[in-house]
Amino acid sequence: MTNYSNRIVSSVIWSGIERLSVQGIQFVLTIILARLVLPSDYGLIALLTVFLVMAQVLVDSGFTMALIQKQNPTEKDFSTAFYFNIIVGAIIYLLLYFSAKYIALFFQEPQLELIAKVVFLNIIISSFAVVQRAKLTIALNFKLQTLASLFAVIVSGVCGVYLAYNGYNVWALVFQTLLNNLLNVGCLWILVKWFPIFSFSRESFRHLFIFGSKLLLAGVISSLYSQLYTIVVGKKFSTTNLGYYNRASSFASWFSVNLSAIINRALFPVLCSIKENEEELERKFLFYMRMASFIIFPLMLGIVALAEPIVVCLFTEKWLPIVPLLRILCLAYMWDPIMLMNSNFLAVKGRTDMQLKGELWKKTIAVVILLVTFPFGLEVVCWGLVVYSFVDIYIMTRFVCKVSRLSLMIELKSIMLVFSLSVGTAIITWGSVELLWHSCYGKLVGGIITGCITYVTFASLFSFAEIDSIKTIFCKKYKFDD
After folding, report:
1. Using an 8 Å Cβ cutoff, are 328 and 379 in contact?
2. What span, in angstroms and rounded, lies between the C-alpha atoms of 304 and 310?
């Protein structure tokens, strides 16, 4: 294997270690907190997440992707992006700071005002590390990002749990989030050793903005839509129901979103480097899509099969109402890698205009789906998300087809065997759980073991190429150095 191929493998693995280790620790913290607080408390935090997610998209403004996509970005490019991100971050924080009162009034939750003013400090803190993350991503250096993230999440996590144990409730989560962000940014500054020059180039800004502005608009539309569910559920239903929806959505999306992000973050610069070779680009794109599906499909359908014992064992019986929501949302989020990879393929080709058009079409239809479903309750709203996932794939593959030889049928054909095996494994897992075990923990452990053995056995018997690829990656001796 060539040195460059080793770097690709290394980047994916370190990207995975960073994402899964950090998210894994936070996931454990979520379980601990879920045992200490009520669903309504999670509902309150979810209301503020709406604004944080939107603010983060605006602060970045698509400049991270623009820096990665640009060939040989200069110091002027990096410094221009740095100063712009900080200015935007400060402006957005001030706007939200003075809007905190009205946010609390809108949701009829007076305690949100003070909490919001503190939580929104994360916006300014995050803006100081946009360039550092871009530089590490360009260099395929996810090892340093891993070290920074792990240190930050472990220290902040210990402090957060201590505060929660001593009765600080929501403020424990607020402090943990701020400390985590501050430590992460500080570590990136120390490890990257990059400082901006005193220069703001109009030419650099124009170039980055031309590319990034379309990504910005697409990101705003996508984020607004994703948070629209929280707004609608929070306003239409109680904070308890919002807490149920938030926990179900967070758990269902954990594997899919994180694994998709790992793969796409590591492979975007790789695909950009071969974008001039059409045949190689399309071949690798389909290969990575199959690999992502091979991992994510069985995980998501496995959660569908084991939803009840998972919820009872991890969150206790007070969270049982999220079981049907969790199952439906897993069916929706399992298609995330397909959706994200198609969108990023357009960015690789430099067609962010098509990304934007696709987002406009998708989210227009998505809002219609939401408006039609929410009067019928939370479960129907979740089924609407399943419908939307297929709408997303159809629309984005239509645009991808215009800039390549790829099509919806080609993509579906490449993942159909993996999908069929995952469905079969889920059915066998569910059947074994219902017939062989009675206790909650027995069902969970037995179901996981049965599912893993079934999936790997049949994948090996039918000679799935993905099995050989995984063996190649993990059975050979690699040096994961930069």
Report:
1. yes
2. 10
Count Cα atoms within 13 angstroms, Cβ side, for 269.
26
CA atoms of 206 and 376, how far apart (whole Å): 47
Residue with tokens 């007076």: 110
> Rounded to two decimals, what is the model's pTM?
0.65
Element (H, E) at 362: helix 352-373
Three-state secondary structure call for residue 71: coil
Q: What is the pLDDT of residues 414-450, one digit of tens each?
A: 889 999 999 999 999 998 888 888 788 888 899 999 9
Q: Would you kindly state where each structural domain of the chain is located, as residue ranges?
A: 37-236, 256-482
User: CB-based contacts of 129: which residues, under 8 Å, 6+ apart?
Assistant: 184, 185, 188, 189
Task: Tell me the C-alpha distance between 296 and 259, whole Å.
Answer: 7
Q: Which two tokens stand for residue 55?
A: 């603010």
Cβ 55 vs Cβ 96: under 8 Å: yes
Nearest in space to 302 (alpha carbons), one of 257, 271, 256: 256
User: Which residue type is seen at 410?
Assistant: I
| CA within 13 Å, CB half, 52 | 21
Per 3-state DSSP, the chain is made up of helix, strand and coil in percentages (nearest 5) of 85, 0, 15
Determine the Cα–Cα distance for residues 51 and 418; give it in Å rounded to an integer: 37
The type of residue at 311 is: V
